[in-house]
Amino acid sequence: MPKTALTPQNLDSVATRFRILGVPLRLQILNELANGERTVTALVEATGSTQPNVSKHLSTLLAHRLVKREKRGNSAYYSVSDPAVFKLCEIVCGNIERALEEERAAFSGG
Length: 110
Known about the structure:
Strand 2 and strand 3 (75-80) form a beta hairpin. Helix content is 64%, strand content 13%. The chain has helices at residues 8-21, 24-33, 40-47, 51-63, 84-108; strands spanning 38-39, 67-72, 75-80. The chain has 110 residues and is an alpha+beta fold. The protein is globular and about 60 Å long. Strands 1-3-2 form a three-stranded antiparallel β-sheet. Helix 3 packs across helix 4 (51-63).
């Protein structure tokens, strides 16, 4: 039984959160931020994406309060503001791994 009432408004918020997390580059950015705060330049280097693209996705993550931004001098540092996002990713990755193991077992006859 869910702990939170699944009202239409709550369901819409959940769907929005999943849409935000449904972009691989955003997940890659969050994964990089799991190791600590980073500048846009560091995230561009780590992801191999372009500065405008990384900035666009950071803006989306910031608008949905998944990351926070701190200005220091001429640089802006981004960090994760909602660490629960990593728990969600671990759950999904665990489910994917289990499904793959079941498929492997089915194909190997064991």
